[in-house]
Amino acid sequence: MIEGRNVKIRPIKISELDHFFSILELAQMQNEFFPFDIESEYNFKKEYESTGFWQADKGLALILDLKNEIIGMISYIKSIFLDAQELKYIIFDEKNRGKGFMKEA
């Protein structure tokens, strides 16, 4: 876990899968520019069981506030064009945006 002054970043726990999937579904419906593709809940859980959403070429981590509530996520994927990693991120709820959480993350 990475812990800052206002946020924590860590891999997702199995006990959070259902809640996290619900957050992702809602975020995808509400945000025209949602930067992630969400598959079925079955495939989502199957991938977690297989990889824990953490591999050499791609992965994701939760962004939590100091109360350990999920406020966002950050992911990485190996670029197909460059020898680099691409980062994608989102703060889910507008009330948590503009507070410097991503700057700190």
Give me the Rg, rounded.
14 Å
Give, in spatial order, the strands making up the sheet with the most strands.
Answer: 1-2-3-4-5
Name the shape in a single word. Answer: globular
| CATH fold label | Aminopeptidase
Question: How many discrete structural domains?
Answer: 1
Measured between the Cα atoms of the first and last residue, the distance is 12 Å
Percentage of residues assigned to helices: 25-40%
CATH class: Alpha Beta
Question: Which structural category do the helix and sheet elements fall into?
Answer: alpha+beta
CATH architecture name:
3-Layer(aba) Sandwich
Number of helices: 3
Give me the count of strands.
Answer: 5
Report strand %: 25-35%
CATH superfamily: Gcn5-related N-acetyltransferase (GNAT)
User: Low-confidence segments, ≥5 residues, pLDDT <50?
Assistant: none
Query: What's the overall average pLDDT, rounded?
Result: 88
The biggest beta sheet reads: 5 strands, antiparallel
